[in-house]
């Protein structure tokens, strides 16, 4: 069975501290839903080499055992509470995608 992934790209973060409330709720919600954070850059000391557009935006990649599990985690009550904690006017490009077997 193909894995499922959450891919989040944050085009601009003017104040990273504003994400604190969201991060405190989202982390446990993701773990409870079976998610594993594979990468969160450029925070946590991760390295980035940007090509083409040259953007070094924050990118978060989370793996789940299946696409269905990834969708269920997003729709969970715990994660929906985390979404409410995202700051007003915050921009994020979020996708749930299928992995390749």
Automatic annotation (TrEMBL):
Pfam families: DUF1330
SUPFAM superfamilies listed in its UniProt record: Dimeric alpha+beta barrel
Superkingdom to which the source organism belongs: Bacteria
Ranges where the DUF1330 domain occurs: 3-99
Coiled-coil blocks: none
Name of the protein: DUF1330 domain-containing protein
Organism encoding this protein: Streptomyces mesophilus
